Amino acid sequence: MCGTCGCGEGYRLDGQLRHEHDGLAHTHGEHGHEHDGLSRETAGSGGQTVLLQEKVLAKNDALAARNREWLRQRGVLAVNLMSSPGSGKTTLLERTAAGQAGAAISVIEGDQETDLDASRIRAAGCRVRQINTGTGCHLDAAMVADGLRALDPPAGSLLVIENVGNLVCPALFDLGETARVVLASVTEGADKPVKYPHMFRRADLVLITKADLLPYLDFDVAQCRAWIGQVAPRATVLELSARTGDGMRAWYDWLAGHGQPPPSG
At a CB cut-off of 8 Å and minimum separation 6, what does 84 contact? Predict the structure, then answer.
């Protein structure tokens, strides 16, 4: 269960039910759950339940630090890709795989249910592991650790963590990523950065997606950029269309500029 929003009842890695015991994810025979002690504790004779958001996030952050060190030692660029549903994350990955032919791209695919997006990305030539969160609204560091063990991305490669489509809870959970990339589709409205500031505030890159639809929409790009600058002044902002390919070169250049060679020796 998510200690912040109360969602979740275990998750699936490539269809196999798993849950978490003291930070170590493992297989569970017929059902999955997460013990209450991870997200709340009972205090006093009255049995008062106190939500322990700080405890849950501290535990997640410790696991994320392990993930980050594991990735750093291998020189793997890990991108946490986040957005609301339907903003074009999977289409962006398909186009990236096609545009970076021959590059080693691994993907941890997060969805509440189905492996539809994982199948699309696999067909595009990427190595994929599917994580289904059930009623959960985000990935966490323990799930990603599981995915890393299953994928074992090669040294010097690109790992993309396609988070569950949601502009709220994923922003709170460090996964051990190298960089955070947030998509803002022109079909959503220019005000998303100020409506969901926590998501955009920690972004290293904001991609304004589906730019090919701009002639047909009332979307103020300048205003959207201004609001991104207000909320996330250090974030790079790029406009692109994964459907037409316009702007993709700048995305590839950004990835190349953030890659990490594996440590020598």
Answer: 165, 166, 167, 185, 188, 192
In the chain, the N- to C-terminal Cα span, in Å, equals 41
Across residues 214-239, what is the average pLDDT? 98
**What's the confidence (pLDDT) of residue 41?**
47
Q: How many whole angstroms separate alpha carbon 145 and alpha carbon 25?
A: 9
| Angle ∠(208,210,211) on CA atoms, nearest 5 | 70
> CA 257, CA 205: separation in Å to the nearest integer?
12
Higher pLDDT, 7 or 164: 164
User: 105 pLDDT exceeds 70?
Assistant: yes
Residue pair 95/72 in contact by the 8 Å Cβ criterion: no
Return d(Cα 133, Cα 152) in angstroms, integer: 21
**How far apart are alpha carbons 265 and 152 in whole angstroms?**
20
| DSSP 8-state secondary structure symbol assigned to residue 214 | G
At 220, which amino acid appears? D
